Each structure stands twice: as structure tokens, then as C-alpha cells.
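Retro notes, item 3 of 5
We never archived the inputs for the adenosine-5'-triphosphate complex last cycle. Fixing that now. Sequence and ligand:
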Amino acid sequence: MIQMFHVTKAYPGDPAVLTDINLDIDKAEFVFLTGPSGAGKSTLLKLMFLAERPSKGQILIAGRNIARVRESSIPYLRRNIGVVFQDFKLLPTRTVAENVGFTLDVLGVSRDEVRERSLKMLRRVGLEHKADVSPLKLSGGEQQRVSLARALVNDPAMLLADEPTGNLDPALTVEIMDLLCDVNARGTTVIVATHDASLIERYEKRTLRLERGSLVADTRGEKAAKLMAHDQ
Ligand SMILES: Nc1ncnc2c1ncn2[C@@H]1O[C@H](COP(=O)(O)OP(=O)(O)OP(=O)(O)O)[C@@H](O)[C@H]1O
Ligand SMILES: [Mg+2]
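Structure as it came back at the time:
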């Protein structure tokens, strides 16, 4: 699904934040991404979403070299990718349901169907009762769940989630992880950046670890969690 060959990323004027990344993630795999703050997790996810371009190296998504795609093709490629980024905001002037349905609107889905699918997705994240309020009236954890609903409403081939459980209590974290596992079982490739060692240990999924811009481990479960002991 995603392959990277010798990928390096430097933001303009700065030294590289990712160096010589090589990875291969299969279709319908579930992968955790860990590493200390600043290691490059969000940047790696942004490369996968074409929100940032690599400085060097090749990135293939579904066999296509995305380093070479034209700007104008990017929105089309993104249709198959759901994202929950740390710095992606919900639209404050739309209701929660409208935020969730936004991508379907853009695809030309009928009004009734957009509403129906948005409500169904909100039910799955436990927020159907907030459908018609402004996202400004939601807590941080609720906003995070709306972002997740928005990312999944389109049934994407791939989900990229940056700390999707960062603001959630343990019970909600389990619910959201169950949702992600369910989506994954139905064939969506899921990539989740997290600082939560207990999730890594408990769910036993493949875990890629970044340290100072390099991939340093590809393990899972307890072994992967142990490497996180001193992370911030
Ligand atoms: N837009 C940007 N311009 C310049 N530097 C950036 C930009 N975004 C991130 N960086 C730098 O790149 C490095 C990696 O950042 P990144 O956000 O990928 O880390 P992270 O692993 O996601 O950290 P965290 O766990 O805190 O979210 C950091 O040193 C950061 O300062
Ligand atoms: Mg980050």
C-alpha cells in the first residue's frame, strides 16, 4: 500500500527532520508509529497524505510514485485517504454533522445520503446527540472523535491518524481503538501515531519507531512498548 525508499525530508531552511526512511506497509495492515516528541511522526504522516513533499527519495502509494504527481491530481488521490491530524481544525461555522459530511458533499453525494451517513458515523463514535451543534461547543476529546468520523465517513482505503486517542479517557480510548480495528478488519489500511505505550502493548500491532528522524525499530507489543519507556 505504501512504500518509501530512501526518503529524506527537510523543511525549508532547516536540517532534515526525516533521514533515509525505508518502509513497506501492506494493504489492510494496522501500524502504530511511535517515537519521542519531535521525532518526525507527524511529518511522516503528512508525506503519506501529500501535505508535505519529500526532499529526496521515492514514495509509492498503491504503486503510484507520489513524488511525481502534479499538484492538480492531489485532491483526487486524497479521496481514498482519511486523515486525523493534530493541527486539522473542524469548521466552526458548520454543524458537527456538516463537518462529518463535508467530504461526501464534495463528491456529489445527495443531501439525504450525506445526512444519513454522517449520523451513522457519528453514532459509531458516540456523538450522534451532538450532530446539530457547532464544533466550538465540544470538548477536545469530542472534537477528536468528530475528526475521526469525518475521516472515516467516506470509507477510505487508508486512514492516517495522528494521536487519535490523545485527549480521551481510558474507556473512550478502548472504544475508538475498537472502531479502528473494525475499520481495519474491513480492509482499510490504518496508521496511527501515538505516545500511548499501553495501547502498543495491548493491541500487539506492528509498531514502527522513529528517533530523531530515523526509523530505528519495527517490532510489536511488549517489546515495542519497552522502547517507549523514556519518551516524552
Ligand atoms: N512546518 C514545519 N516547518 C519547520 N519545521 C517543522 C515543521 N513541522 C515540523 N517541524 C519540525 O520537524 C520535527 C519533527 O516534527 P513532527 O511534528 O513530525 O514530530 P512528531 O514526532 O510528530 O512530534 P510530536 O510527538 O510532538 O507530535 C520537529 O523538530 C519540528 O520542529
Ligand atoms: Mg506529531
